[in-house]
């Protein structure tokens, strides 16, 4: 198939460090190329891909202080996709609802993966208006606030099978927190769990500009405890050692997590997960196999003592069954083919 992948411009594809959506776009794009599809990636100019790259800006907007209005390059990229739309059998957007007005008024099949939270009240009238646009959810739970949306599939994220793997000979000795420090991610809970269980905690996380005050006032004072080590943001090459050395990953979230990429990154390294039962967590974790979903701090603290009862080989095996990039790409191709057939049928019916 001739497929266009349209990514955000905030980060490169793949991102240099943090960036969940752009990372998934990269994994999907590269897997589709490996499967023999003709893929064009619309993304920032510093993206790296085996697909054809159609740059929407010079480099990732987060890394380019000269760009003061990020909507300008994004608008131009959407126009570029529109003008080239007939080069493709399917357009796959990763820009939330932004493509809906323009691309609902043309005939090339398109689909949008919704990567974020959907429980915001301002989204209701958008999906009331565009209730025929096909969208993909990344967990069943993510769908719940928008029953009127036209969900075509739930497709779970996946990672390249050999991207992250257990490091042989590493003896797990600490708890891990990975990702982003923000109020909803509850790094404070992770610190409290580590202290309560007398277990070292290593924190590998970025601090966004909007969360600096939260970090300085809430989290930074807690880092003084001798059991706590703050590493900062890490890249893909550092994750296997970091996660393989962990007894378990703590994901004590306090929000409706749409998917939770860090959980399957841990599983890829054979590391079980303790996560609070919000959003996608009960779907992503196989209870008693890849970790534990908990409802309280008391349950989380008790679960730490059970982590070593979970065979790490079984955690890795379940990752290979459920969360590889090849499985993700195959699921998307099945959807692309269905939408392409449906689009062709619609065009023929309209012509008649």
Describe the structure.
Helix 1 packs across helix 13 and helix 6 crosses helix 11. This protein has two domains: 2-158 and 324-351, Glycogen Phosphorylase B (Rossmann fold, 3-Layer(aba) Sandwich); 174-322, Rossmann fold (3-Layer(aba) Sandwich). The chain has 13 helices and 13 strands. A seven-stranded parallel sheet has the order 3-2-1-4-5-6-7, sandwiched between helices. The two termini are 26 Å apart. The protein has 352 residues and is of the alpha/beta class. The chain is globular, with a radius of gyration of 21 Å. The longest helix is centred in the last third of the chain and has 27 residues, at 325-351. Helix 1 links the parallel strand 1 and strand 2 (38-44). It has helices at 20-34, 71-84, 100-103, 123-129, 140-143, 187-196, 212-219, 239-244, 261-268, 281-284, 297-304, 312-322, 325-351; strands at residues 2-6, 38-44, 52-57, 90-93, 110-113, 134-137, 150-154, 174-180, 201-206, 228-230, 246-251, 273-276, 291-294. InterPro entries: Glyco_trans_1 (IPR001296), Glyco_trans_4-like_N (IPR028098), Glycosyltransferase_grp1 (IPR050194). This is Glycosyl transferase. GO terms for molecular function: glycosyltransferase activity.
